[in-house]
Amino acid sequence: MHKINEQGYVSFKESISDFIHGLIDFKGITTRRGYLFPMIYFYAILFTGCNLLFIFTLMNINGLAITIFEIIIAINFIVANLLIIPVTVRRFRDIGFNIIITILMLFFAIGICPLFGVLLPTDCFKKKA
Fold it and tell me: What is the CA 111 to chain-centroid distance, rounded?
């Protein structure tokens, strides 16, 4: 298993590589930049899929084709949401959120999670000794 240990400057290539290698690993460190690039990718996929669905609906294409496309978009959306959970958990732990706050945020505030992950610095809420 590839250890995720981002610190300092993280390139786009490195952040995507760490995102892919850490899909099922909740351990390690994720920087703000390392969190930002997967979020941009996630929202680009979401935005593109929703726009294509809207365009196909407006074009009034055959009902079966739209239904198949809707199923593909729904599966893509579910998979994309599942894939961003580990990177979000790593980032929130690095910020200093405990696991209960992280779970509540993932269930009830998934839309604003990227704002917290990108804007808050590492160790923001960790108690200092």
Answer: 10
Beta carbons within 10 angstroms of residue 56's beta carbon: 16
What SS3 string covers 46-105? HHHHHHHHHHHHHHCCCHHHHHHHHHHHHHHHHHHHHHHHHHHHHHHHHHCCCHHHHHHH
Which of 52, 51, 3, 54 has its CA nearest to residue 30?
3
Token pair recorded at residue 68: 């198949």
* Strands (DSSP E) found in the chain: none
Distance in angstroms (rounded) separating the CA atoms of residues 1 and 42: 23
Q: Position 124: which residue type?
A: C
Tokens at 122, concatenated: 């590492």
pLDDT tens per residue, range 4-56? 655 667 777 777 777 777 777 777 777 787 788 888 878 887 788 778 777 77
State the Cα angle at 47 between 117 and 4, rounded to 5°.
Answer: 35
Q: What distance in Å separates the CA atoms of residue 87 and residue 91, rounded to the nearest whole number?
A: 6
